[in-house]
Design goal:
- The protein is α+β, with helices and mostly antiparallel strands.
- Among the domains are: 115 residues, conserved putative lor/sdh protein from methanococcus maripaludis s2 fold, CATH 2.40.420.20; 50 residues.
- The protein is built from 5 helices and 24 strands.
- Strands 3, 12, 13, 14, 15, 16, 17 and 18 form an 8-stranded antiparallel sheet that branches. It has a 6-stranded antiparallel sheet with strand order 2-19-23-22-21-20. A 4-stranded antiparallel sheet has the order 4-11-9-6, with no helix packed on it.
- A hairpin with a 4-residue loop joins strand 15 and strand 16.
- It is elongated.
- The chain starts with a helix and ends with a helix.
């Protein structure tokens, strides 16, 4: 009788122990950081960037105001094709003519003074004064064209510009550009030094801009596919400078506009590629690491834990990043997201759907070890 009672009590206690163990294990698992897992794979990491560019050409003639100019008449429009020597616009010569005449009179007076001076020192001073006045006269004659008409210095396509009667230009101010006829139209854009190095000659580029049908005076949107023709590292700007040829477009590009640029590089096949959020920044500058998910025997079952591996971040985009590092293997499981901050050798919980992935990873590790 006592023996049966002891057995019953033992069974009850064992049941209570099992239930308590189950409950404690369940509660413990609920307190663990829950992680989402991704797998290291091989593949291509496409890099891309967006920028704003502008049209350019070789041997572009840049017209600047050579003095304080007031516009009296405009003969051309932005986007027009002009011939060398063609009239562009007129400037007010009223004050300039007075100033020119005053300088001419000063030069004439200085010449007479020089002829009437005989002392060596006095003659040298008179010559110096004449030279100064002649330089001033030459500069002013160059700043103000004959009859106040500014002519095209070469033939080509005019940039988009805005000039109206009454506008006042300051000395040195950019007025317009003349793009040479027959030249290759290019789009130039810039990327930061730490980003632009990912893009090389031949990388595909998409350009978006507007062009003008000069006959119908209609503006149309253009999308042109091209590629990087040349790149240069501009140390003075801490940027990469890119030139992209523009071909097979319709109409006449509006030269002063901004051009939307999208450049990409499909790269080469990489051995180790992970989702970008898997790569975590270390304490030191340019230091990165990933958390690898592994299993080891626990008290009642296999425990899942994380191990930190230092990696080099080769390059990537918003979704994928190529990495390298000692100890990396194809198919390794890495932490993508976690419900709590993680640390080396911390036990974690994984969703049920990832159990098979863990078992496959263990099998691959064992096969690799053999």
């Amino acid at each position: 009788m006592k023996k049966k009672l002891v057995v019953k009590i033992s069974v009850v206690l064992l049941g209570i122990l099992i239930v308590c163990t189950f409950l404690s294990t369940t509660i413990y698992n609920l307190t663990l950081p829950q992680v989402e897992i991704a797998q290291i794979q091989s593949g291509y990491v496409t890099r891309s960037a967006d920028a704003t560019g502008s049209f350019t050409m070789d041997n572009v003639v840049q017209l600047k105001a050579r003095d304080h100019w007031e516009i009296t008449e405009v003969f051309v429009n932005g986007g027009d094709r002009v011939q060398e020597g063609q009239q562009l616009f007129a400037i007010d010569m009223t004050q300039a003519n007075l100033a020119l005449r005053e300088l001419e009179l000063k030069v004439e007076k200085a010449e007479k003074t020089l002829k009437q001076t005989y002392g060596k020192a006095e003659k040298a001073e008179a010559q110096l004064q004449l030279d100064r006045l002649q330089v001033q006269l030459t500069q002013m004659q160059e700043a103000y064209p004959t009859d106040g008409i500014v002519l095209a210095q070469s033939g080509g396509l005019l940039s988009d510009f805005s000039l109206q009667k009454g506008d006042v230009l300051e000395k040195g101010q950019d007025v317009l550009s003349i793009y040479p006829a027959g030249g290759t139209l290019m789009v130039r854009f810039y990327l930061p030094a730490d980003q632009g190095g990912s893009f090389i000659n031949g990388c595909p580029v998409e350009l978006k801009f507007q062009s003008l049908d000069t006959q119908q005076q209609l503006v149309s949107d253009q999308i042109i596919n091209s590629q990087v023709a040349e790149r240069r590292l501009r140390s003075d700007l801490n940027q990469w400078e890119f030139d992209v040829p523009v071909e097979n477009y319709s109409g006449q590009p509006m030269m002063g506009q901004e051009v939307a640029v999208h450049v990409s590089n499909p790269g080469v096949m990489q051995d180790f590629v992970v989702p970008t959020e898997c790569v975590r920044r270390g304490a030191e500058e340019n230091a990165y690491f990933i958390y690898v998910v592994e299993q080891k025997p626990g008290l009642f079952k296999m425990d899942t834990y994380v191990r930190e591996i230092k990696v080099d971040k080769l390059y990537g985009n918003n979704t994928q990043t190529a990495i390298s590092g000692s100890g990396l293997l194809m198919g390794m499981l890495v932490v993508r997201n976690s419900s709590q901050p993680l640390a080396e050798n911390m036990t974690v919980g994984v969703p049920a759907g990832y159990t098979d992935m863990l078992q496959e990873a263990v099998a691959q590790d064992q096969a690799g070890g053999e």
